[in-house]
Fold Transmembrane protein.
Amino acid sequence: MFQFDDDHVLDVHQARLYPFDTYLLTSTVRVVSTADNQSLPIQRLSTISITSSFVTVSSDTSSFVRGSNGTQEPSRDLILRISRPPEARMYALLLFGASWMLAHACMALVAFSWHLEGAETVLKHLASTFIVILIIPQLRAAMPDAPGFDDAIGFFPQMLVTTASALMLIAMMVKRELQELDESATPDIEDRKEAPAPLSTGLLRMRRGGASVDINHIRNFSRTLSSLGRPAGI
């Protein structure tokens, strides 16, 4: 029995299917004796079945390769299928669901803020949205052996949703602040309006005198006019 380690590069194009990405590796192993430079037969090839991040299923078959002198030399082919363990898939899906729930919570905060009054409430919702923006990358990095920060697991849509929610909350907060400033400035303007100027003393006397006219003077004046209109000696 002989054991050795080797490194194989996985196909990165399958990373977009994380955590359901699977990989297929093939390799051919040939053993040559150092004493006489002759190929030795291989009875079986096996690999470690499970690791912390992957589950491997291997199968091997006998084969032949062409040697340096053109002869067929015995070898053995190894076919290796690699996938994620169920525990890693479940853990990644839980983190994926938590990230999307936080993103939808930001959209719900925008809807609530739209129907509420006051800039202080919008400011609290804005602070919560900024916290979510910081939490989502941490949840993404906590996924076991996750690929880079790409669109494979929904990281980009989540960040776009939360960032758009934060921008909308900022716009609503600015609008509410401006409305409050306008409302506070309106009473000051009304108070500054000039009250009607008081009437002078002369006008007050004229009004009082006009309101209390002596009717006897009017009667005497009318009698004088009537006596002047009569012919003399009658």
